[in-house]
Amino acid sequence: MDELKAQLTAKLGLSEEMSQQAIDLVLGFVKDKLPEGMQDIVNSAVNGEMPDTDGLLDKAKGLFGG
Questions:
Q1: Distance in angstroms (rounded) separating the CA atoms of residues 45 and 39
Q2: What was the pLDDT predicted at 63?
Q3: Rounded CA separation 7/14 (Å)
Q4: Which of 2, 6, 14, 26 could form a disulfide with 18 if both were Cys (CB 3.0 to 4.6 A apart)?
Q5: Which long-range contacts (CB under 8 A, 24 or more apart) does 44-48 make?
Q6: With b meaning 16 or more CB within 10 Å and e meaning fewer, what string describes 3-42?
Q7: Rounded to an integer, what distance in angstroms lies between the CA atom of residue 12 and that of residue 21?
Q8: Which long-range contacts link 24-29 to residues 24+ away (Cβ below 8 Å)?
Q9: DSSP code, position 35
């Protein structure tokens, strides 16, 4: 997130506080649009952690015959 904040600050001329607010707004919007249970995956990824997908990728493959 620090890299994104730095780019918003440099390229758009936003203050660090405004950059963080923009990031929080977008993340909130994205999480609201995700199916239930996916928000934790996004939160983990945002925090730099390897999200526990609980076999989500394998389940998705199954939808497409994979």
A1: 10
A2: 61
A3: 9
A4: 14
A5: 46/1
A6: eebeebbeeeebeeeebbeeeeeeeeeeeeeeeeeeeebe
A7: 14
A8: none
A9: P
The per-residue pLDDT for range 21-38, each reduced to its tens digit, is: 999 999 999 888 888 777
11: its two tokens: 């390229």
Both tokens of 7, joined, read 């780019």
Report the alpha-carbon distance of residue 18 to residue 5 in Å, rounded.
9
Both tokens of 8, joined, read 């918003």
Q: How far apart are alpha carbons 42 and 26 in whole angstroms? A: 12
- pTM equals 0.65
CA distances for 43 relative to 14, 20, 50, angstroms: 24, 15, 10
